[in-house]
Design goal:
This protein is mainly α. It has a domain of 72 residues. It has a three-stranded mixed β-sheet with strand order 1-2-3. A hairpin with a 2-residue loop joins β2 and β3. The longest helix has 47 residues.
Length: 629
């Protein structure tokens, strides 16, 4: 492993931008957005330079490291603050800075009328810096610092318009649920140190063979809890839909391309732990499969365009988690789908923002319709992302999602049949709800009110959308050509196991496209035959009502955790008041009562004092007499 002196610039550039804009205050309002965008682009430039350098070295010499400083030296616990750039982290660095810069450019126009635009860009830079630290840290502890930084930045961005109580509540909900997941990462780090004596990735990888399976299983489960929180996976997924309260560029950056993929990074980076802990690995697969279906079902019932895309994100991350849980054969495909998803989902979120921009911030798709005539560029770029997420060849999702479906079938036995069927069903449901989004938004007749005048977005908004659309078309082919990404990541996942083919690739592709066609056909049948109501019908099935309420996830959390927590808190408060405070008050009352009684003896009359002296003297003489006798 070689060393590098330039890795720190990847993080330092956006971090300096955040600090300058936050500390500079209103004096930076006029040019703060330009500085933030330039620094994000510069970080992308450093990442591209590092990639070219990496390509010029042999496979063994490609990882580079940089020690920043001595961090913790307490007894046997010694941790250096350091950075690691290898074949896995460079994929995330380029995704974070590349897509992040496009979102910065988009935001220049999207947030142009916001009084606090400079602060918004400072938070964007802070998020980029924290996410880069997360994927560049060379230990679980360094990763944890970036992990918490991302949580802080997401809280600030989701609640950016916190003057609206609902938006402030949404940011708190995301923050609290992520803290639950963060406890999992904390415990995983503790287990690593207690059983292996190290928290560095290299150290843990070396010690896996000397560690009990029980300890590795515990660490793997805790890492999964952390991933579930950050990547909105079951059972910590309830925050993602509410997080759409933030400005739309936030949804594209955090909830499509970067933050929600952190859990996938954590699991693939910890591949040595999960490969040695099959129980934890199986739980990863189960969580991914459940969330895949969970998000897809929710997406079918959402009329809010951003919440429909958020449910889609939840489902697509489920595909990635499922692939990562399939072990060495699935890691590369999880990363491939993560990268392609970063292009087409970020593009669709920006497209949703463009629609909102042209529709006076309206988010209800039932009040759209026929927008392809008024917003042709948005329609074209969004449409390319739509074809990519459906997995239509030759678009990006065809290469990445089909590989996950094939890997799921080839897991073997009943497990393979179940997982393959789930991924196929998820593809059909995805095709249904995404076609529903396209129909309600861009086709049919107009359903907006007379005061609305739809219009195309300015070039600073549609240019990033166009670039992302190019990625939606080409990224899958480029990453899969000659197994490019799989070969690139191979050194990190060396124990590659070959599985027999339950279904040949051409059969898998045929089944997937058939399921997609069924989903598209059902959506066209349901939403293209007649007028679409401006309001959601109330006379619907129980299934639809439950899906509209996010499969009752909030009600479950309220019943299982919030209400019992409130009852426990009330019990503890009552116990504190009756026992702890009651005891303290009782002692005080006794002291005060005794003092009041004794105070009556201090009346100031000499005869009373003489009488007390006489009584005392008699008592003393009597006591002496008793003792002498």
């Amino acid at each position: 492993m070689t060393t590098s002196t330039s890795l720190v610039y990847l993080i330092a550039l956006p971090l300096a931008g955040a600090a300058l804009l936050l500390l500079g205050g209103r004096r930076t309002d006029k040019w703060g957005h330009l500085l933030a965008t330039a620094l994000s682009a510069s970080s992308f430039g450093v990442g591209m330079y590092q990639l070219t350098q990496m390509l010029g070295r042999s496979e063994e010499a490609r990882p580079v490291s940089q020690k920043l400083f001595d961090w913790i030296n307490v007894g046997t616990f010694n941790v250096d603050a350091g950075l690691l750039l290898d074949q896995l982290s460079i994929c995330f660095v380029l995704l974070i800075t590349g897509v992040g810069t496009l979102i910065h450019v988009y935001s220049i126009s999207y947030m142009s009328h916001d009084h606090d635009r400079r602060r918004f860009f400072a938070y964007l830079n802070l998020f980029i810096a924290a996410m880069l630290l997360l994927v560049l840290g060379d230990s679980y502890l360094s990763l944890y610092v970036g992990w918490e930084g991302v949580g802080l930045a997401s809280y600030l961005l989701i609640g950016f318009w916190n003057q609206k109580p609902a938006y402030a509540t949404a940011s708190k909900k995301a923050f609290v649920m992520n803290r639950v997941g963060d406890m999992g990462l904390s415990f995983a780090i503790m287990i690593a140190f207690a059983t292996m004596g190290t928290v560095s990735f290299a150290g843990v990888a070396e010690q896996v063979g000397n560690t009990s399976e029980a300890a590795l299983t515990g660490m793997g489960i805790m890492l999964l809890v952390a991933a579930a929180g950050k990547s909105a996976q079951f059972p910590l997924q309830a925050w993602l839909g509410d997080a759409m309260a933030g400005p739309t560029p936030v949804s594209a950056l955090i909830h499509a391309a970067t933050m929600v993929t952190a859990g996938v990074y954590l699991i693939t980076r910890s591949n040595f732990v999960f490969d040695a802990a099959p129980t934890a690995q199986l739980l990863v697969v189960i969580v991914g499969a459940i969330t895949l279906m969970f998000g897809a079902i929710i997406g079918t019932a959402k009329d809010d365009i951003k919440k429909a895309l958020a449910a889609s994100t939840m489902s697509q991350i489920g595909y990635m988690i499922l692939a990562a849980g399939l072990g060495p054969v699935g890691y590369a495909f999880a990363i491939m789908h993560l990268l392609t998803h970063g292009f087409f989902k970020a593009g669709m979120f920006l497209g949703a923002g463009s629609v909102m921009h042209g529709m006076n911030d309206e988010v209800n798709m039932r009040k759209y319709g026929a927008l392809r005539k008024f917003m042709p560029i948005t329609f074209a770029t969004f449409g390319l992302g739509y074809l990519a997420i459906l997995g239509v060849p030759p678009f990006a999702g065809f290469y990445s999602k089909d590989m996950i479906i094939e890997t799921a079938f080839n897991a073997g036995g009943v497990k393979g049949i179940i997982l393959g069927s789930v991924t196929l069903l998820g593809a059909a449901i995805t095709a249904f709800y995404m076609t529903r989004v396209m129909i309600l938004t861009f086709t049919g007749t107009k359903r907006w009110d007379e005061n609305t005048e739809p219009h195309e977005s300015p070039w600073l908004m549609w240019l990033p959308m166009a670039i992302l659309a190019i990625g939606s078309v080409s990224s899958g082919f480029l990453l899969s050509r000659g197994d490019a990404l799989e070969n690139w990541l191979h050194p990190l996942f060396e124990h590659h196991e070959e599985h027999g083919h339950l279904l040949e690739p051409i059969v898998v592709s045929g089944l997937a496209l058939t399921m997609v066609a069924i989903g598209v056909a059902i959506a066209f049948y349901k939403y293209s035959r007649g007028e679409v109501a401006n309001t959601a019908p109330e006379n619907v099935s129980v299934f639809t009502r439950v899906a509209r309420q996010d499969l009752m996830q909030d009600r479950f959390n309220e019943a299982a955790f919030m209400r019992p927590g409130q009852a426990l808190t009330a019990t503890l408060v009552a116990t504190d008041e009756l026992v702890v405070d009651g005891t303290a008050r009782g002692v005080g009352s006794i002291a005060m009562g005794s003092g009041s009684a004794l105070r009556g003896l201090q009346n100031g009359f000499v005869r009373s004092y003489a009488a007390l002296i006489l009584v005392g003297a008699v008592a003393l003489v009597a006591a002496i007499w008793v003792v002498v006798q």
